[in-house]
Give the backbone structure.
Amino acid sequence: MAGSWRAKAQAGGMLLALLGWVSSCVTTFVPLWKSLNLDLNELEVWTMGLWQVCIAREEGLVECRAHGSFLALPPALRVSRLLMCLSNGLGLLGCLLAALGLEGWRACEDKPGLKRRLLLAGGAAFGTAGMGTLAPVSWVAYNTVLDFWDDTVPDIVPRWEFGEAIFLGWFAGAFLTAGGLLLACSARSTRTATPPAPACRQPPATRGPAGGHHPHPKNADLVI
């Protein structure tokens, strides 16, 4: 029963982590972190991501323009770029480590301790990747809220709002963190469920009729 629970926990954790990692990679590159609707021209919708700004027109045309210099970006976008790339790299590392530590994987079958450590390391990498995704997404969302409710900006000036990538990033971070926790918990349960090795016991010595050791084998009593 414990082995079945561990296998299900590992499969569920790996599935959640993979889904979160793919969603995090999509969040990194899509230009949908912010959206802007112009009241003067409702036929255009501006969207912004970490790498480019796009304009979607009613005719279906989308024009994108990459950001300029990296140093010219706002601090939130610069740090978000670095953290999201780091999160994607950690997610890939977690996939490799956790896959080698799964019970159904034949690699390192003769080394259960190594498989447990690989699974635990993969879960830790996934959890760190989840935090690395949640931090920049939440920071950009926080700055967007502050700018939206800034009283010093006239009401006539259009303001940026949340894009779809913000919500996708939150889900990605939650999936990565939950998957990493499941993998780490299954690795811990594997460690605690391993039974101790039985102690070696020597067979009892053969005693003679008087309770002492018989000095000779049985056919030594035969008289020739």
About this structure: The CA atoms of residues 34 and 162 lie 5 Å apart.
